[in-house]
Amino acid sequence: MALALIAGLATTTGPATASSYPYPFRDPRLPVTERVDDLLGRLTPDEKVSLLHQYEPAIPRLGIQAFRTGTEALHGVAWLGKTTVFPQAIGLASTWDPALIEQVGSAVGDEARGFQQERPDGWGLNLWAPVVNLLRDPRWGRNEEGYSEDPYLTGSISTAYGDGLTGGDPDHLKTAPTLKHYLANNNEVHRATTSSDLRPRVQHEYDEAAFEPAIAADAATGVMSSYNLVNGRPDTVNPDLNDVVRSWSSRDLLNVTDAFAPGNLLPGTQNYYPTLAEGDAAALKAGIDSFTDNSADSAPTTAAVKSALSTGLLKESDVDTAVSHILAIRVRLGEFDPNGGKYGSIGTSVINSPAHQKLAREAATEAAVLLKNDNLLPLKSSSKNVAVVGPLADTLYTDWYSGTLPYAVTPKQGIETKLGTSVASSEGADRIALKDTATGKYVTAGTSDTGAALKESTDTGTASQFDVFDWGSGIVTLRSAANGKYVGYNWSNFVNDQVQPNGWFVQQQFKLEKQDDGSYLLRYAGYETGESWWSNPVYLGPTGDDGTLGLVAKEQAAHYAKDVVRSGVDEAVAAVKGKDTAVVVVGSMPSINGREDHDRTDMGLAPSQEALVKAVHAANPKTVVVVENSYPTTLGALQKDVPALLWTTHAGQETGNALADLLYGDANPAGRLTQTWYQSESDLPSILDYDIIKSDRTYQYFKGQPLYPFGYGLSYTSFRYGALKRVDGGYEVAVTNTGKRAGDEVVQLYTHQRVSRDKQPLKQLKAYARVSLKPGETKTVKLRLRTKDLAHWDVTRSKWVVEKGTYDVLVGASSSDIRSRTTLTAQGETIPARDLAKVTRAENFDDYADVRLVDESKARGTAVGSSGDGAWLRFSDAALGSGASRFTAQVAGTSAGTVEVRLGSPTGTLVGTAHTDGTSSAYDYKTVTAGLSSAAKGHQDVYLVLSGGLRLSTFSLR
């Protein structure tokens, strides 16, 4: 009855008065802060605590419904059923078209709202998207989820997507997007225990720079903390969640943890806090508002928070602060407004609407990048004698964060629709039979749609035949010829019942290991085999009386003869011979070739896919290769041999139509690469090396010759650039389409600082614009560049600085294809010599060797930890004046050690040595001192040389 009364009052028509609403928090005329304060004051302490978990319960006495953080919406609404599936995030960014991306975000936001009338399990209006982690290393398993290796491009695309998701009205949110994953999360190997070392310049200029724009523009309503550690401290308790992230916005933000991350703080994983109460209290104080832990079971979290309150680890005001952040978002979402507020009427009709289907096709078309074209593309629509072959020719794969495809237009289907006729096709996969060399029996699968457990039998028909797809690194999948389903392990048996490889463990992975006698062992390679379930490799062999296959040790594995029933290469070659054109579609399987929790182990195409392309090209020189994956690929000799090469990400339901439009010239390719494509893995340092400045990572610092540079992409037309002119607020350049086709050019502006105290990027993207031009048309493109955009982080004074000097301003079609340039003289400042007489934080070094950045305390601060004797830090151009006589430092570490002060180099003149006999813990700092010799004077590069195991937080030379 109370609920009915509240609902009735909330929907009263006519002029609104104070009495129209049962409580002030339901009055949309009041400021958000007043509504939050009113509701907060009505909640009991237990109700407040209950709101700190991902699954916030209903509060019936106030008419408040349950609320859940975390609907996935990376490139469409995920995990809720059939919705519009747009290109993967890296594909969206490859459009370099913020206006289009805002439309996509708006469509995704509408579809998230579309479920609000039904509220299915897993639904909520707090969306966990976009991912703005920088694609620093192309081997990262989650490369498909990010946008770019560049922070400016990432910031602009994420802001556009976020603006679409929010609806562009911060006071009335369509949805509440959350940026993932704060901070420096770009490796999956040991992701919960590895620490990303971020020296201040890298943190400010690179990693934070990707997160700030969307927050500052009110295009996102919070961040998700990542699993990893930064400078030795788990991001779940990173104080920058409060100190930095909240400083970017004047609005309340709702910060959440990643799933199960609070539990990682405990012994067994990060071993940072001994109890959940201590960990959750630290997270709350650091800036976390909502705990994603233990799935829907909120009891451990609420018990931990209550324990922290009762023991003084938390104050009630700490809980109030977090809850107020949560409630502010819920108020802005219109939850407490009459009829759900501004967006409360959106219904299910928007989900996969015709308009969204059209938008999906447009996005998939704009996302594709033409990598090579020796006058083969575009194809003539009048020439219908084509073949479409390859493992991805007639299928669409989805990824972990994808929605369910409402329909699928494959490359083959798209081309057939374009031509109005069927085309020859082949997947290019071998069809094999596996015969036990000991028994003569064959591995057989079920023939029904639901399949059956694999077993050995005398059946030699299609039940004993499997199509083998090679995904590289020895991994293959087996698709039953009997029912077209993939074989997977279900924790009991191996069954042919999966439409595509899927799931967290991806149990559809195998290896065919050839033995010396020519037989093969069938090894199970599901992802969990690398975890704790099995410490040794496991294989298949008959384990039941009826020949049912199960897991056995290598010694008990069955030896199989591999009979090739049909050669995939031969079939594909036959399909393309005599055709006007051969289109080969190769690429990745998103659940296998790198994904969450698994980095890529190989940057090349699968060997059999590369062999397929070579064979097809040999049979038909007019071969177009479509590479469909989500990351840079080392294509080797392949890209030199074939005449045309087109890259697309897994682009959603309209992939085939988009590819057909591009291949046949109804659309002109204009996507551009958002990452450097390297020649080889040898171009890259360890995936755990986060110092892009020292290790020369990304296009900003990479000095080698890439396979394809950042910003690269070809067109069916050509463009001429005019002179670059300075105008108010930036620069302008005239761009002319000098070809015979309409097309889009992505005009990119880079800067380079010629002289600096600090190592500077070779080039740095500062502005861009995608412009459409008809044949012969000229447009003047304006690109914003302000003097403050030239700033970098000055470690000597811990602030942003624009140095006085000359800057190159470069405009072109990619980072390496510069068409017009000029110079800019900035009236900035000169960074003064270091004043080491002031207390200097050790992390503000200029160079280093054999050190790690570590947590100064568990609460906040960064120190430098020595990885071994002889580790050093350089502090350049220090002004020691007429002489510094004493070195003072704060050090910690349980072992005795020394800090040497040297000049000029790590082995230069020794002017003093400070000694420590150790402290009680790594967090117990003590003051050590040393007298300095008379050589410590004038302008010097000062080196601090540390013994192993020592931590240094601050120091001074006076």
Automatic annotation (TrEMBL):
Pfam families in alphabetical order: CBM_6, Fn3-like, Glyco_hydro_3, Glyco_hydro_3_C
Protein name: Glycoside hydrolase family 3 C-terminal domain-containing protein
Limits of the CBM6 domain: 837-958
Entry keyword Coiled coil: no
Segment forming the signal sequence: 1-18
GO MF annotations, alphabetized: hydrolase activity
SMART domains xref list: CBD_IV (SM00606), Fn3_like (SM01217)
